Amino acid sequence: MSNRAPEIHLLRDILMLVLLGGLVVIPSMATRELWSPDEPRYVEVAREMIARSDYLVPHLNGEAYAEKPPLFFWLAAAFYRCGCGYNAGRVVAGLAAIGTVLLVYFFARRHWPSPAPLLAGLAMLMSLLFLSHARLGVLDPLFAFLTTAAILAGHRALHSQRGSGAAAGWWLAFYGTVGLAVLTKGHVGLFVPGVVVLAYALLNRRQVWGGGHWHAFGAVLLLVIVGAWLVPAGIVGGKSYLYNLTVRQLVGRVIPSAGGHRLQIHPQPFYHYALQYLWFAFPWTLLFPLAATEAAVAWRQRHNEAALFALFWFIAVCVLFSIPAGKRAGYLLPLAPAMGLLMGHYLGVGTVEGWRFPRIHRHLLLATFFLAALVLLILTATAFTSVWTPDVVVRFVPQYAPLVAEVRGEMGMLMRLFGIVAALTLAVVAIAGAWVLLRTRRALLSLICLAAVLFGVSLYADIFVLAPISRARSERRLCEAAALDLAEADALYTLDPSLAGVYNLYTRRISIPVIGNHLAAALEEPRRVVVIGSEDNFRRFAPAALERYRVVARLQIRPEAKVVLANWNRDTPGP
To answer: Are residues 385 and 269 in the same domain?
Structure first.
């Protein structure tokens, strides 16, 4: 029986992490519309691969798509063909996110005793950085999975016996997964695992095996993996496609002005992510400095190199992602595994051996509960004012008045009431966790309460927050409202270049030309023409068009109104 106990615990831990991971990623597939523009755009690239029978050069809106390599789109296309439809990208991202949690668990299990491995997986699952991005059908979760696999393979290779077959295998695994990361997100797939493993190897150069000639074999493997796609894609796509995919993406992401207008997205100063620490580290915002300190002390006193490795992983990724000019919160997802490992190590050591700074730990943990309860109470108050007294919201943000009205229309009276009760319940659980900590000082039980609150918030957000907002701001509703006219149209145009590919997904068209100054001429064509765009763009390019031609559908999407305009009347055979 004792021989089977570790296996039983292993299966229990894996099952728990997979179920909780599913609780994070699955509900959004059933409740929430695709979040424009990235989610529908990436699914559309996969759909166009299938429609064109062209899996070599990704296309969007009928044109070669040089913004990203194809691995994510290949996987999304496979799930799309299996019947996942619009959720194809989310399935890829969700599986990758859960896989990343399991990688963190197995690494911690190899280096630290129970309960640190399970706590490491749970700490990663509970981080707001993971909760907010693992459910999105974008490239970041898959990229985080591949970079995590590469980093852990590199760590294993460094600590393998010099010259052994296992060491060679791990170095090849490192370079192979780096190649797949490059096929997912380009150059950064090489930099993230390369910088982490190189920095750690230099610091521990006397204790690790550098790899010797296996780096040459690994580099060949990486070049074969990337080149097997890049060379034929460059030949078929042409010099312009190859230049945009490689040189322009690399230079333009670091220096936006060098990459042209399309790459000047989300420019932020170097210290931007440091200012976002309070957000992406939640709920570990207050405790994480103690976890980092514990890792450093554990290395100096007990030579715990795994804790040091996690700390260097976190620091290296923070610095690396602070260098490029373009910054988004989702880019930081490769930090989540390192954060989970550091918190798992800290909580595991504290649970078994006691806390290094018990008074500070207790105060910070207590503050964490009160902070979580405060956030939930603020969300409840916001939901109450938005749903029951929308005039209060409109008074402060009048540009969102139409959107608030749409969201209220999406939620029935019972749903509004149930949502407020659910948020209040979660706040009570958070306060109960604080009470348990104050009265009994059972930190593990209070952490269970915190986990219940965070996973409850994740489910609450999917049902009561993101679902109605996503339906109110989805272009899918607009296309469904105009479905009959879209089916009868001889030509379809759009005025919104930023939504190229989004309308394609919902209308099943390969190419929707983007027009601007040619709007008036397009509407005067001797065939049935439909134009989709924002109301502001219609008034900008053809002020009289909205009064002269038939408005098929008009919906408030985001703060602006979207319009579908047709140049023929339904009671006449032509325009």
So the answer is: no
Helices (H), 186-213: 188-203
Coil, strand, or helix at residue 553? strand
Q: Among 473, 503, 535, which residue terminates a domain?
A: 473
pLDDT digits 0-9 by tens, 361-411:
888 888 887 777 777 666 666 655 555 455 555 555 555 565 556 565 555
Whether the Cβ atoms of residue 70 and residue 229 lie closer than 8 Å to each other: yes
374 and 302, same structural domain? no
Instruction: Please give the structure tokens belonging to residue 460.
Output: 């609450």
Statement to judge: residues 142 and 195 lie in one domain: yes
**Range of the structural domain that residue 266 is part of:** 5-32+66-353
Q: Same domain, yes or no, for 266 and 162? A: yes
Please tell me the total count of domains within the chain: 3
Q: Map residue 411 onto helix, strand or coil.
A: coil
Q: How far apart are CA 186 and CA 173, in angstroms?
A: 18
Phi, psi of 501 (to 5 degrees): 100, -30
Tell me which residue has tokens 């009431």: 417
From the number of C-beta atoms within 10 Å of its C-beta (0-12, 13-18, 19+), residue 265 rates as middle
Extract the tokens encoding 144. Answer: 């985080």
Which H or E run contains 19?
A: helix 5-25
Burial 131-154 (b: 16+ CB within 10 A, else e): bbbbbbbbbbbbbbbbbbbbbbbb
What single-letter amino acid sits at 551? V
Same domain, residue pair 152 and 70: yes
Residue 48 lies in a domain: no
Residue 560's DSSP bridge partners are 557
User: Can you list the residues of the chain whose pLDDT is less than 50?
Assistant: 1-2, 257-264, 388
Last residue of a domain, one of 439, 458, 473: 473
Q: Please, what sign has the CA dihedral across residues 476, 478, 481, 482?
A: negative
What is the pTM for the complete model shown?
A: 0.89
Nearest-angstrom CA–CA distance, 440 and 373: 19
> What is the number of H-type helices and E-type strands within the chain?
29, 6
10-31, pLDDT tens digit by residue? Answer: 899 999 999 999 999 999 898 8
* C-beta neighbour count of 574 within 10 angstroms: 10
Residues 463 and 481 in one domain: no
Q: Is 24 within the bounds of a domain? A: yes
Which 3 state secondary structure label does DSSP give 534? strand
